[in-house]
Design brief:
single chain; mainly alpha; Endonuclease Iii, domain 2; Endonuclease III, domain 1; 2 domains; elongated
Length: 210
């Protein structure tokens, strides 16, 4: 099977079975999305969604969050992973939004990654979900599943992102991110992939080796 055939078969399967995938992080605007994605690092979306309603009620805007202290924010996020550093990053991020971007979430990679606590993956999620850009965020699920399927052998998330971007049409890239991520979350799990109930097993490079 060629790499082109592998990509084509996998993308066609997901398009047929899950045509409109969406992020599972609950949010109402780009700021809430940015906060939720920052909190989701090494943490489940389910846990983040339990935390954010009260957090957003207390700090609904960048200006409100910037006016708080990291200790204030910590009270709302203490049940997520690495709460102290995340609380500090949220306060610093909100302050920079207010000071340098008039309280608006930037719509480009350079400015987003200049914000405290915002890396390339987080920026790609915001650019794709909030601004409709053709990004492919690579988290642990996307990295793992891309290797197992044979979509990439990249050694770093940036390598995997380049491989996926090269082979996936722009109009499908952000959807493909969701497809691969959700497949990794619910089917191709890290410790025990459910290969027998996987709809794309015949396109999977790792399954071919079994």
């Amino acid at each position: 099977m060629t790499i082109k055939e592998r990509y084509q078969g996998i993308l066609e399967y997901f398009q047929a079975h899950q045509p409109n995938p969406e992020t599972e992080l609950q949010h109402r605007d780009p700021f809430e999305l940015l906060v939720a994605v920052m909190l989701s690092a090494q943490c489940t979306d389910k846990r983040v969604n339990m935390v954010t309603p009260a957090l957003f009620e207390a700090y609904p805007t960048p200006r409100a969050m910037a006016a708080a202290s990291a200790e204030d924010i910590l009270e709302y996020v203490k049940s997520v992973s690495y709460p102290n550093s995340k609380a500090a990053h949220l306060q610093a991020m909100a302050s920079k939004l207010v000071d340098e971007f008039d309280g608006q979430v930037p719509d480009n990679m350079k400015d987003l990654t200049s914000l405290p606590g915002v890396g390339r993956k987080t920026a790609n999620v915001v650019l794709g979900a909030a601004f409709g850009q053709a990004t492919i965020p690579v988290d642990t699920h996307v990295y793992r599943v891309s290797h197992r399927l044979g979509l990439s052998q990249g050694k770093t998330p940036a390598d995997v992102e380049r491989d996926l971007t090269r082979h996936i049409p722009a109009e499908m890239r952000f959807k493909a991110h969701h497809w691969i991520l959700l497949h990794g979350r619910y089917v191709c799990k890290a410790l025990k992939p459910d290969c027998l109930n996987c709809g794309i097993q015949h396109y999977c490079k790792q399954y071919e080796r079994r």
